[in-house]
Amino acid sequence: xxxxxxxxxxxxxxxxxxxxxxxxxxxxxxxxxxxxxxxxxxxxxxxxxxxxxxxxxxxxxxxxxxxxxxxxxxxxxxxxxxxxxxxxxxxxxxxxxxxxxxxxxxxxxxxxxxxxxxxxxxxxxxxxxxxxxxxxxxxxxxxxxxxxxxxxxxxxxxxxxxxxxxxxxxxxxxxxxxxxxxxxxxxxxxxxxxxxxxxxxxxxxxxxxxxxxxxxxxxxxxxxxxxxxxxxxxxxxxxxxxxxxxxxxxxxxxxxxxxxxxxxxxxxxxxxxxxxxxxxxxxxxxxxxxxxxxxxxxxxxxxxxxxxxxxxxxxxxxxxxxxxxxxxxxxxxxxxxxxxxxxxxxxxxxxxxxxxxxxxxxxxxxxxxxxxxxxxxxxxxxxxxxxxxxxxxxxxxxxxxxxxxxxxxxxxxxxxxxxxxxxxxxxxxxxxxxxxxxxxxxxxxxxxxxxxxxxxxxxxxxxxxxx
Length: 467
Description:
By secondary structure, the protein is an all-beta fold. It is built from no helices and 31 strands.
């Protein structure tokens, strides 16, 4: 396995867009649905750190561990309280490369579902000798049988010098498609879109700085096309690049087929950007794409506007962008930001850029009771109220620094709905909910934690319900 390192030290759930507003509830009840690593060798998975998907009564997600230690896809039926491992990755290996999993390993992005109930996702590693990751489909059985794994694409089929993957490497953002922002299920045949953390046609001969790609299904055979390459002239040292470097958080595809997303490095100060990518026409496979930098984080040098936007972004009904940064802000513990279209300038008069508003600086309360380090995705309800998580903070005495929080943001007001690690010295209710939450039509929140739970402390799947 090739090790890819972040150039810094840190790491839109569509269902929430149409959920009823519930933030006014005065009481929230947390329930642990499943404690990970309940089976020998963590065959049921461990350390889930990716947003969940909910379809009907069933939650779907990915985790690490499993029977082959390559990760799993799992389901949890909220109606029957049944947890099931649907697939174990790394069940086969690449010929001549016994440590590389031909069916992929380390699933690290949220899943999508099609109208037939089939699931789609990515793995960061595995595929072929390049170990550059895969895109996969899990086909739902007609009855009570097993789910069937199908490979859609293996990155870097034409590896050059063991390093450069011109088609992308390490797909670490979730898949999306036209209509996803409106809550429509994938049709199983239209173009899929995603981003890779590294790779691309890098003129400097390093790993490349990431791509946005499309996948096309032609009579069951899939092909890949790179739509955009980030900063092909930036060196492996991640020197500041105005184009943005390393797309990481999930991006949004709007009704006009524009992409809105972030990179965690690059930009004026090298601390990340928010970008827009617009097609030249309606044929998205052949269109040329124009990238516009909407905002550069830490442009002033003080980083009071945030650094490193790891989580995905969300758009409101008027086109404003909301997201979080895991660092920067008034207390250097991250913030929640809003970007509005405008003609703002940066230091030295550079611009125009979108105008940023700091909605909340985390760790503003004693002991970071309001949370710290928001790394996960936000979700927005039908009234525009945001929900999210922080990986730390919450000021519970059991864990130094707190076990993390679930919070809501309404306008300029942040409210903590739940503080983790409050039930026992082992944090039986979970710890470090860094992935974010999803919101169903009844106003219930669901998500994973990467730690806490049973004695193995490998995380939980939880529900937070209003009353």
